[in-house]
Fold these 4 entries.
Entry 1:
Amino acid sequence: MHLKIHNSYIRSLGVLLVLFFLNSCQCSGQEPAKSPRQQRNPSEEHIQHQRDFLKKERESIKAYLKDRKLEVKRSGTGLYYQILQDSSAQEQVATEDEVVFDYSIYMLNGSLLYTSEGNSPRTLVIDREDAEIGLHESLKLLGLGDKGLFILPSHLAFGVAGDQNKVPPKTALVYELKILKITKSKS
């Protein structure tokens, strides 16, 4: 009987050892578990990724300004602008005005994406029609006959999706705008 208990004990011990070795083989290719301090919340990673992107975008815009020796102002939303031609017009663009304007849209590398040259000017009802947020803001900085240069960070241009045509996702853009006509709103 003593021998039976001993053999049973050895078999049990053998099974446990086999299980232990199998378990250790499965884990050998895995990285050790991180402590809670080392683990990052996915939303924290996303936030850090966005911060890194915004920093790179700001650096790209600053490099563009420096290369071209542009002296611009910056609005609270992050729009960079310079009035190139001030007509000192009494008539300024305001919300709900219908504005007709010439435009050229470039990437920061100088690639021309869209222009009204050779085409007809664009018409937009300010703050009432669907268009880039930064375009509405830019036009409201101008008056009849004025011309301006505007740099729209991606969040003021076409955002994370681009325009599904020529503007890639998350792209800062340069707009040259000239006001041709303002039809004041009736309200």
Entry 2:
Amino acid sequence: MTRVNIAIIGCGGITLQNHLPGIALCPDTKLTALCDSDPAVLERARQQTGVGVISTDYREILRREDVHAVVIATPNFTHAPIAQAAAAAGKHVLCEKPLALNAADARAMAAAADRAGVRHMTAFTYRFVPAMRYLRRLVAQGDLGEPRHYRSCRLQDWGTRNLGWRQIRRLAGTGELGDMLSHRIDFAHVLVGPMKRLVAHLLNLTPVREGAPNDTEDWVAIVAEFACGASGVLESSKLASGRNESWRSLDYVELNGSAASAVFITGQWNQLQFGRLGGPGLAPLPVPREFWTWPGSPRDPQAGDPLVTFRYDQMWEFVDAIRSGRPCDNTFHDGARAQAVMDAAVKSAEGRRWVELGGE
């Protein structure tokens, strides 16, 4: 395939912030069509991009022969039907997280994409942070020894503003669990491996947001046991007053191994904190330049805000996988594994008990 033509289905803020610049980064790649069920949102995206092919019906977009791949950035409850229809139409698919409303739907998406022989990718964007990539390498080559403890903490200040469909459980599935903790669950899988069992608690502290009902959680915490025997503690909140949000707020991951410990903080994109067993404590560990961009990406890591621009490498990985005919680094199967953990967390919180993950 010489040129990759991409259609975007769902033209909200994530699309404009992450996906459009990513497409522009990739040579011989063109944004060909736009789709959104809201005509006003669609028109704004058309004006911003200049794309002439637009539709409010994703089926119309999927019938186009000049569309090779799609990005799905729609409300969560629509991910499964759109992704399966796209795979059936022979389109490669990049889908926002959480992948689906439940693990069964997520697995069905992965199976459909596998059967169709298309590339599929879950948008776990933070895998592309240089410091995270370097930590992943250190773990893989055994620098930390056997993993013992994993912990993550994501604290943001979203206040009580209206979150639209994201605060409606039947449309979103979950709140903070799917919004933000899904990324950290993926971190845990990448760094430590599958979870064996967990216990979780979810809290909704804002049943009304700007006059509109909210039936999703603002805060979630998980205590987990991994299949390898390591422990895990994961927490995420929308209500950490004064913490700001997005890349300006706390996103912390620590892994303690038998030989060393390492800390990853999104805001410190080009360094880790690292310390050896019996040493004086954690100290800065610079991230080698080879990790500043994804392999092959033409992005200049010193252009723009590095806490934003790393996200554009996600599209590079997707397009390169299409051209190379290889699996994406983070597939629908990764999204389904994270969804299984989220399902177990909800089940645990509702039943106030430990839940086994059954080898997920």
Entry 3:
Amino acid sequence: MQIAIGSDHRGLELKARVTKLVTDAGHQIKDFGAYTDARVDYPNIAEAVGKAVVSGTYDKGILICGTGIGMCIAANKVKGIRAALALTELMACRARQHNDANILCLGAENDDSQLMQMINAFLTCQFEGGRHQIRVDEMTKMENER
């Protein structure tokens, strides 16, 4: 699987750990920044990762900032992105199963004791479709009406 990843300056350390977990699991990673601990504006990175995922070049994305909230909000401004903030393995899996999320957002300041489980769940849980497809279609319709 091809994964686009990005973080702000506060997420650098977690991004390095996530990158190792993802590549150790056999996936390919493209890093969209940040690359140093100098302050950056996370919306630009969220947009770059979002556009890379929507284009089809990357299967999924992972975004990291201090809490994960800012990246999640910014990524969801990109048409076609369904970014989800996950704090547990269950949230990461449900984001995929019920919402067909294509970007996982993580907080560098959050408890990451379930980090490997969250990433594995996000990358392996499959969208269930069915009644959930109706809801995803409703969100897409809302997005297209903006």
Entry 4:
Amino acid sequence: MAQSSSPVSGVADRYAQSLFDLARDDGAIETVESELAAFQELIDSNADFRRLVESPVFSSDDQVKAIDAIVAEVKPSELTGNFLRVVAANRRLFVLPGIIRGFRQYAADHRGEVAADVTSAHKLSAAQRKELAEALGAFAGKTVTMTETVDSTILGGLIVKIGSRQIDTSLRTKLNSLKLALKEVG
């Protein structure tokens, strides 16, 4: 996983690595990953839970009580529930989204997967999606999981991001390059 100079991302990475190691040892990577995805969805969809996670005004006791109530209601695995309690007790709930992202990255690396963000001018067909996934897999040397976005402003072609690499074959970029080249000539 890429290192960052941000102290928050360092904290999130350490927690994510610890949780991943525990989940791997218990053979529960997929379970924990799906439970964390549900908590991320809760953060995204519930303003009260998001406030609990992000706000520094809640005491450690308040956060632990709230997490205990949520864990009792949601009933995640013991590992996930205990982990969330530890994060709350240590007043680190504010890094929970970073922990979730980090855990997902560790899990993907463990499975030999790499994530690719694909932007296209129109929705890809199943055949196009399959062909692109195979081509990207051959390029990356790993199984590729794609996140697709449709952006009609690129006019045509694709923009693919894999890790720190970006491949931009969009018509918009080609037209902009042509426009610059014509300005230099004229």
